[in-house]
Design a protein that fits this description.
By secondary structure, the chain is α/β, with parallel strands linked by helices. 40% of the residues lie in helices and 8% in strands. The protein has three domains: 7-86 and 342-363, Serine Threonine Protein Phosphatase 5, Tetratricopeptide repeat (Alpha Horseshoe); 89-225, Orthogonal Bundle (DNA Cyclobutane Dipyrimidine Photolyase, subunit A, domain 3), CATH 1.10.579.10; 246-332, HUPs (Rossmann fold).
Length: 365
């Protein structure tokens, strides 16, 4: 079960990670994955902190695969910074075979008949967690077999994920669907059996992987339904004006106490501009609030636009970490740029391969 953690607890947890075992087994559903993503997504720990902590106890060679996987997250963030709103529509390639832009009912109901997927979706609803490979399989079934456009399905998965990050989530769906790269990611029952303890013989995925895109939409996947999920907002706890006080603002993706400034008020902003657009489940909202309170002393909550906080224009100082969701805060706050593993690699790269190539060159200097 994924629970809120303090930074000290997370560092001790990272010290127990075996990067060699991770590299060997991460593709298997029972492999030695780190499950750090909820804390990285929420900004409790940074990618450089994870890397540096690993390198204290392990060699660069042993950590290479895990660091490369961390770089995928940094890559998706760079795509968001560079492309902005474009990550919510087809980035590079369009497809003419979409059947609809709704949810695939069998996926939502965990009733595809593919045992691994149905069990994983059921677990997602109760835990907020899904193995990365299972996410790819779900996306491939939804986009490349049911031929449902990735956007609404991406919103559905995002709604339930404790580690819901817009860039990682929607860019991953595009990668699978072949709208950010020119190839679709395919899956079949044989691949799933090889990466899990399930040994299902027949299912809607009983075909050769290279034949997935030429399959007719199975009857089990034809039914579809609109996206109807909404965020249930918590009550605002912020009461007193912040005029004449020092303030630090936080987003649900930047939950880390700032050390560069001493603030008398610490306020988490739940902005409906983003949470109406990308709703989250009560489980996710509860995790965000509990995690924030675990790492930020005296955290207050404001539901609304940060610009509407009483007295924000008269505060003695306002600081925040920059994030693609809070750039308008520059009107009244000093924004600190996020820390990166590869700070010299910026801008848009059309593929992770190109990005990683640039990262490798930057570290070789």
């Amino acid at each position: 079960m994924i629970i809120p953690q303090t930074r000290a607890e997370l560092f001790l947890y990272i010290d127990q990670i075996d990067p060699v075992e991770y590299a060997k087994t991460r593709n298997h559903l029972t492999g030695a994955v780190t499950k750090l993503s909820p804390y990285i997504t929420r900004g409790v720990i940074t990618l450089p902190e994870v890397r540096d902590r690993l390198l204290v106890s392990h060699s660069a060679v042993d950590c290479a695969k895990l660091i490369q996987e961390l770089a995928w997250r940094e890559y998706f963030q760079e795509v968001w910074w560079a492309k902005g709103e474009a990550i919510f529509s087809d980035l590079r390639f369009s497809r003419g075979d979409w059947q609809h832009n709704q949810l695939v009912s069998a996926l939502v109901a965990a009733n595809t008949g593919v045992q691994v997927l149905d069990e994983a979706i059921g677990d997602l609803y109760t835990t907020g967690y899904m193995h990365n490979h299972t996410r790819m399989w779900v996306a491939s079934v939804g986009c490349n077999l049911a031929r449902a456009h990735w956007h609404e399905l991406g919103r559905w998965l995002y709604y339930h994920l404790l580690d819901g990050d817009p860039a990682s989530n929607f860019c991953s769906w595009q990668w699978v669907a072949g709208t950010s790269i020119s190839k679709q990611y395919t899956v079949n029952q044989k691949l799933i059996n090889g990466c899990s303890d399930f040994k299902q013989v027949r299912s809607i995925l009983t075909f050769d992987r290279e034949m997935m895109s030429s399959q007719s939409v199975p009857q089990e996947l034809k039914a579809h339904e609109p996206f109807t999920y909404k965020t249930e907002y918590p009550d605002t706890t912020l009461i007193e004006s912040v005029a004449d006080q020092s303030v630090t603002l936080y987003t649900p993706w930047t939950l880390r106490m700032h050390t560069h400034t001493e603030a008398s008020r610490h306020i988490l902003i739940i902005d409906p501009v983003w949470f109406d657009r990308l709703p989250v489940s009560p489980l996710v909202m509860d995790f965000i609030l509990a995690q924030g309170r675990s790492v930020i002393d005296g955290l207050e909550l404001f539901v609304g636009s940060a610009a509407n906080i009483d007295g924000i224009g008269a505060a003695t100082s306002v600081h925040a970490q920059a994030h693609p969701t809070n750039l308008e805060w520059e009107n009244f706050a000093t924004l600190v740029q996020p820390e990166k593993i590869f700070p010299h690699v910026t801008g848009y790269y059309p593929s992770f391969f190109k990005f990683w190539e640039a990262c490798t060159k930057s570290t070789a200097r």
